[in-house]
Amino acid sequence: MSSSSSLWQRVSVAVALAWFGMIVPGVLRAAEPEFEIVTLAEGLDDPWAIAALPNGDVLVTEKAGRLRLIRGGQLQAAPVEGVPQVRVGGQGGLMDLKLAPDFATSRWVYMTIAKSNADDSLGTTALVRARFDGVRLTDLEEVVETKAWGEARAHYGSRLAFDASGHVFLSIADRSAFYKTGRDLSEHPAQQLDNHLGKILRVNLDGSVPADNPFVGRAGALPEIFTQGHRDPQGLAFRPETGEMWGVEHGPLGGDELNLLLPGRNYGWPIVSKGGNYADVTGFKSIPSRPDMEEPRHFWPTTIAPSNVVFYSGKRFPAWRGNALISGLAGMKLTRVEFDGNAIRNVSTLVEGRGRIRDVHEGPDGLIYLAITGGEGAKTPILRLTPVE
To answer: By C-alpha distance, which of 322, 265, 278, 268 is closest to 299?
Structure first.
C-alpha cells in the first residue's frame, strides 16, 4: 500500500470513529507541518477556556463554575478553590480565562463570569480577577460589571485579550435582545451607546477607563466601549505583526465573521449581517452591507460557530507563525487563516471531526491546546497539537 493510500485510510478511520463520538489520537500528515494530536487530559465537564502556565501546569474553566488544574499531565481530582459564584445555565457560567501579562510576578488570573441579580431573574457578564498561588485563588475582586443585563441565558460573548499597553479587552454579546417585530433596527441595544450589549470594551487592568477610549466624553455613551454593533463575539486576539486586534463573531444562520476591530467603529448588527438571521423568529432581516458599517475581512456562508482565535507566534510550528487559528463549535474544526498584509490569502482546515472545539490556546511552550466540549454532563478532553520532529 502506498504511503498516500495509508494516509487517507488512517484519516478516514479517524473521521469515522470521531463521528461516533470517539476521539482518536494520531498523526495528521495531510497538513504542513506534520503534527500529532495527543490527549493532555480527559474527564472535563464542558470546558470553556485554557490557560497554560509557565511551569507546565494548565488551568481550565468548566462552564458549571469549576476551575480545574492539570499538573504533570494529570487532571487533579479536586477543583481549584476560590472561584466566584456564577449564574449557570444556557450559554453562561464560568467562561474565559487569561493570565495577566505580568502573571509571573502578580499571579493575577482574569476570568469572565455570568452574574445574577439578587433574585436571579436577570444576568450579565462580569470580569473578575484573583491571584493563583499554584493551589487556590485568593484576593478575588470584580473588575467590571457590564451593563448587559437581560433575562436570556444566551449570548454572553465573553472573551478577553490584553494589549501591550496595560489594557484588557472584553467582548460582550447582544444577550438575544430585541427579538421583536415592528421595531427600528437602529434602536437595537447593539446600536446604542448607553449599554454594553453587542460591544467590545476596553479598560485598564484595574477596570478604570482609559482616557483615550473612542467614546470618552461623548454625551450618552458609556466610556468603556471600544466598538459596537456585534452579535455574539466569542474570540479576541492581537496580531503581533501589526498590534491590531481581531475578533471572530457568530452570525445568525451563517455569516460568521472574522473582523479587524478598529476603535469607535460600528460592525453593523443587527442592521447588517451576511447570515440568514432567523427572520421567522426575530421578525426582522438584516441587509448584507451598508457603507457606514464595517465589512468583515472574511465570513463563512455556512456556520462554523467560531469560539476563539489566536495568532500563532511560537517556534514549534514555524510555518504557522503570523497565522490566525480559529476554533469552531458547529463546524468542529480548527481553521488556519493566512494573511497578505490585512488581506486574507488562504483559509484551510487543520483539525476536523474531533468534536466541538470551544477554545484554542497557544501555550508558552509554543504548542496548541484545544478544549473539546460535549455540553453539560459530557466528559471531554483537552487536546494538544505537537509537531512530528
So the answer is: 268
Whole-angstrom CA distances from 61 to 85, 104, 238 are 13, 20, 22
Distance CA 83, CA 68 (A): 10
Set 155, 167, 196, 230: catalytic member: 155
Phi/psi of residue 54, nearest 5 degrees: -60, -30
AA letter at 209: V
Identify whether 155 is a catalytic site residue.
yes
What is the average per-residue pLDDT within 141-152?
94
pLDDT band at 32 (very low <50, low <70, confident <90, very high): low
Q: How far is CA 307 from CA 11, 49, 103, 237, 325, in A?
A: 25, 10, 24, 12, 11
What is the per-residue pLDDT for 278?
75
Could you tell me the pTM of the whole model?
0.90
Instruction: Tell me the chain's radius of gyration from C-alpha atoms.
Output: 20
Residue scoring higher pLDDT (176 or 39): 39
Q: 188 Cβ partners below 8 Å, 6+ apart?
A: 174, 177, 178, 198, 269, 270, 271
Kindly report, residue by residue over 304-331, the tens digit of the pLDDT: 999 999 999 999 999 999 999 999 999 8
**Per-residue pLDDT, 176:** 83
pLDDT at 1: 39
* Cα–Cα distance measured from residue 357 to residue 372, given in angstroms and rounded to the nearest whole number: 5
Instruction: Give residue-wise pLDDT tens across range 41-68.
Output: 999 999 999 999 999 999 999 999 999 9
Q: 296 falls in which pLDDT band (50, 70, 90)?
A: very high
Distance between CA atoms of residues 310 and 326, nearest Å: 7
> Which three three-digit cell numbers place residue 141?
475582586
